[in-house]
# Entry
Amino acid sequence: MNSELFTLTYGALVTQLCKDYENDDDVNKQLDKMGYNIGVRLIEDFLARSNVGRCHDFRETADVIAKIAFKMYLGITPSITNWSPGGDEFSLILENNPLVDFVELPDNHSTLIYSNLLCGVLRGALEMVQMAVDVKFVQDTLKGDSVTEIRMKFIRRIEDNLPAGEE
Amino acid sequence: MAVCIAVIAKENYPLYIRSVPTENELKFHYTVHTSLDVVDEKISAMGKALVDQRELYLGLLYPTEDYKVYGYVTNSKVKFVMVVDSSNTALRDNEIRSMFRKLHNSYTDIMCNPFYNPGDRIHSRAFDTMVNSMMMQVC
# Structure
């Protein structure tokens, strides 16, 4: 798919949301929600196409996300850094973010998290493989930072949907 | 290199105009305004068939005592006008051409910014920086 078309489509989506909602927080929430809905579907496609098995720890999950998932869907490979000592938190550093190719944030949208959809996607996808995570942007090139950084924090394994009596 | 750079919409109202701060700004507004007639003339002088395959760069529109005015028109009829000091003889046609090309690319990027509504005045840091870099090189 043509990358300009993709970027412009996402741009149109975000600006429409900005028109529909009065403040940026609502837009951020809405983007996250849409991302979540994409994530819960996308994970099926991802598992079917990539043939990766179950991850044994969070570090492996991080690798799969950065090296396979991002590569497959966005054509970029973010680097993984800033592991917390407990190994339950890391950062994805995006050198360039294809979603923001032409974008310049206007001054009246200073709190808008333009690419917040990505957070929702990651959260939704990992939830479907029994991982509750917290995902948020901590740096963004749109806001003048030199790189875009997504922070992911492992919260817990979701085990409640195992049918009783099994295992 | 340039002392004034302007972007004019299809309907001939300014989208962006910027000149070196040391000089009288209004004078450049007049110069650019006057040049629009020459642009129209140049386009209409070409036959209908030629308009479709013409070059975007129009070349020197007209020289005045102190300045030279160059023009460039995109296929969507957006006009770029550049005023250059005539004492600056080092500037070749080719360089002007490549400056216009740069300007055009930059303008395209702005159009692709989802927060920019086509037809509005251009307020963009990236565009400002680019235009500044073109005006700096003279001094």
In short: The helical segments of chain A are 3-20, 24-50, 58-74, 116-128. The longest helix of chain A spans residues 24-50. DSSP finds four helices and four strands in chain A.
